[in-house]
Amino acid sequence: MLPDFFLGKFGHGKNRFSSCVVNVVQEMRRVKTRKSIKLLSLIVISVTSITLSSYWRSAAIALPPPEDTPEEILRTKIIIEARSPIDGRFLTAAEYLQLQAQLQLAPPPKLDPKIREQIFLLRIRKTLLQFFPFLNF
The pTM is what? Predict the structure, then answer.
């Protein structure tokens, strides 16, 4: 039997205690149910997003862009235009062959050996500074 201070005003201590226990148990069930619903919704959202993202990637990877010319057509195409190696302007096939012949007869002038050596040393210096930034030479 419970003491008098547990019984309160109404004297139904047993009923009050049991109703508190029932309330606590019901609240624990509600919390447990909420947690399980949250977990279930998290799983459903995760699986859905992973599935959709995998389908989007595979569709994007599988197909080339529509404006891309197929390789089979490009292999059979005869190239009748070229670009100048000097200034990059468009040339016809005859102009390109003529320019190639001129370049073979009179190749572009080579650099002075002293300038080449300076460029070589500057490249070595740049490489060394990447590995040893604290060097100041």
Answer: 0.30
